[in-house]
Amino acid sequence: MRINFILALAKFDGYSWLRRAPATTIGYTSMPLALLFLIYVLSGGRLVEYAVAGGLVALMSTTAIMVAGSTAVFRIQLRIQDLLVATNATKVEYMFGMAVANLIFCVPGLIIYAVLGLYFGLFTPVTVLITAIVLLLLTVAVISIAVYVGSIFKSISSVWTTASMLGVILTMIPPTYYPYTLLPKPILYIVALSPVTPASVILQGYYGLAPVNNYMFLVLFAEAVIYLSLARKYSRWGDN
Amino acid sequence: MIEVSRLTKRYDDGTVALNNVSLKLNRRITSILGRNGAGKTTMIRIMSTQLKPTSGTVKINGLDLVKDRDEIRKIIASIPQEIAPWDVASPQEHVEMFLSARGLKRSDIKHLAEKSLKELGLWDVRDKAMGGLSGGMKRKTFVAMALASQAEIIFLDEPTTGLDPISRLEVWSALRKINGTIVITTHYMEEAKELSDEVVLVNNGRPVMQGEVRKLLSRFNGRVRVEGPKGKYKVADSHISYMRIKDAQRLLKEGYSIKQISLEDLFIMNGGGAIED
Ligand SMILES: Nc1ncnc2c1ncn2[C@@H]1O[C@H](COP(=O)(O)OP(=O)(O)OP(=O)(O)O)[C@@H](O)[C@H]1O
Ligand SMILES: [Mg+2]
Predict the structure, then answer these.
(1) CA distance A146 to A235
(2) A8–B97: do the CB atoms touch at under 8 Å?
(3) What are the boundaries of each domain within chain B?
(4) Could A85 and B49 be called an inter-chain contact, meaning their C-beta atoms sit closer than 8 Å?
(5) What are the distances in angstroms from CA A116 to CA A17, A20, A51, A63, A123?
(6) pLDDT at B251
(7) How many CB atoms lie within 10 A of CB B133?
(8) Looking at this predicted complex, what is its ipTM?
(9) Partner residues linked to B4 by β-bridges
(10) Ligand 1 in contact with B48 (CB < 6 A)?
(11) At what angle do helices A196-206 and A125-152 cross, to 10 degrees?
(12) Fold of B2-216
């Protein structure tokens, strides 16, 4: 894997966007922030820390799933994938480039959550490290799904529809904005298929909002690896 | 050197875009000409490893297109016909991203990108978002990618479509400076004639003619193009024939006009025009 190319692609896709059209990133932050407000009002402030943890996870995963859209645009509309296929760039480098781009793209949102997290006293050196690891693994897992979705459809609109639907399934059903202990165990295991679930469970645990469940690290790690391998195998890259 | 042998491409919907094509390209700049749908893009896409052939083989500098695909990708650069810019990224970011995809060193990338952007008159806008550039500047950015690529073999599918005459000259001069072998497609006869050492005329998925422009035109020796109320070929509303100048002169009174032979006429003779009588 060539880090140089991954960074160049990330700059091309993510940094340039952030730099020249920063307002668009607010669009992605607005949904979790609106929910944060809603939860604050509805729970009388009680569940607001869940909403901060959940918002962080939701921000990363919704932007990551929307990478399906940019992948489709790059492939179908701009033919940038065609351009890259004829070079030594690989599918995995491409996926990582898009993932880093997405991280860059999320910086403004991350700053907002960093401020909120500090305000609510969620951060210690340990939880910051854990948050970073969780968000990275989450990004890899969701981007893999996104790149796969972005590579298989003939039309961009099918990709958008599928990605928006997946976005809802992946982020709204899992215990993103509420304590994971509310879910019966069997259902928790089912929704754990969405990498958002283990990510939320881990953060809720380490932020002191719910019991720590280290088992979910394994789940998140396994999902990152499995989804990445599946995407690597099954997403389309060129004509092969 | 590119050797294509009995290459056929049948798309999923059954369209046969290339039909048992064999040809050798070994000149420095080759232009592929042909009408819309003739199969030019299909040919370029196959030669640049973007599309798999249905059957047949292609060798590029001795490497097999299928077996040595990764080796081939190291030595080629290919700019697709329908490539479009990413609005928010700049010309420089486009070129640098492409160069790093090709695996060039970071230190080389900066300076190669600078050189080619200057060459194509894009240096002043290097840092602007592509969305704010004119159509021609966008096209030239993709030529800058090819120019900076350091590839041994470069494929450009209609690189000058939509460029103004000066920009076209800039592109030609940039292409001439490339050390490697270049294969371009174009619809501009003038361009093919000025720029290339050899042209390949493709019609209905097959090359129908190949050679130096001057030589190909010599088959018309002494004849001129005559347009008038009747002719051997019908192209849109024109009726066209080819004949010796003496015979042509006799037709002048009947409302016919005489034109010089150009590359376009190769087209018309080789299936570019419907035969009238
Ligand atoms: N993806 C595809 N699926 C099915 N048929 C295709 C596909 N791409 C091209 N074709 C068909 O293959 C034939 C050759 O197309 P191609 O794009 O190679 O032509 P071209 O010479 O590049 O034309 P133009 O000058 O318009 O760019 C056409 O009949 C076209 O309709
Ligand atoms: Mg074409």
Answers:
(1) 10
(2) yes
(3) 2-216, 221-260
(4) yes
(5) 25, 26, 10, 19, 10
(6) 86
(7) 19
(8) 0.91
(9) B23, B58
(10) no
(11) 170
(12) Rossmann fold (3.40.50)
Q: How far is CA A180 from the centre of its chain?
A: 19
- Within its chain, how far is the Cα of B260 from the centroid? 24
Q: Which residue on chain A is closest to B107 by alpha carbon?
A: A4
Separation in Å, CA B18 to CA B29, B38, B56, B160, B200: 22, 8, 10, 24, 14
- What are phi and psi for residue A106, nearest 5 degrees? -85, -5
Q: Determine which helix (DSSP H) or strand (DSSP E) holds B102, and give its type and residue range.
A: none
- What is the distance in angstroms between the CA of the first residue and the CA of the last residue of chain B? 41
Q: Kindly state the tokens that stand for B72.
A: 């081939």
Q: How close does chain B come to A8, measured CA to CA in Å?
A: 5
Long-range Cβ contact pairs of B133-136 (< 8 A, separation 24 or more):
B133/B85, B133/B91, B135/B162, B136/B162, B136/B163, B136/B164, B136/B167
Token pair recorded at residue B24: 């050798």
Q: Give yes or no for a contact between A65 and A167, defined as CB atoms under 8 angstroms apart.
A: yes
The model's pTM is 0.92
Are B235 and B162 contacting, i.e. CB atoms less than 8 angstroms apart? no
> B203 CB less than 6 Å from ligand 1?
no
CB A56 within 8 A of CB A203: yes
Distance in angstroms (rounded) separating the CA atoms of residues B63 and B50 = 16
- CA B117/CA B122 separation, integer angstroms: 5
Hey, which of B7, B10, B11, B160 would you mutate to test ligand 1's pocket, going by the most ligand atoms within 8 Å of its Cβ? B11
Nearest-Cα residue of chain A relative to residue B70:
A88
Q: Which of B222, B219, B264 is nearest to B245 (CA)?
A: B222
**What is chain A's pLDDT, residue by residue, as a tens digit (240 residues)?**
899 999 999 999 999 999 988 887 777 778 788 888 888 899 888 888 888 899 899 999 999 999 999 999 999 999 999 999 999 999 999 999 999 999 998 888 899 899 999 999 999 999 999 999 999 999 999 999 999 999 999 999 999 999 999 998 998 899 998 899 999 999 999 999 999 999 999 999 999 999 999 999 999 999 999 999 999 999 999 875
Tokens of residue A35, six digits: 């929910």
> Could you please report the per-residue DSSP string of A123-173?
--HHHHHHHHHHHHHHHHHHHHHHHHHHHH-SSHHHHHHHHHHHHHHHHHS
DSSP class of A73: I
Give the number of the atom of ligand 1 that is nearest the alpha carbon of residue B15.
5
Give Cα separations from B194 to B139, B141, B168, B180 (angstroms). Answer: 20, 22, 11, 18
Query: What residues of chain B lie within 8 A of the CB of A75, using their CB?
Result: none
Q: Which of A11, A78, A238 sits opposite B93 (nearest CB)?
A: A11
In the A/B pair of chains, how many CB contacts fall below 8 A?
A: 92
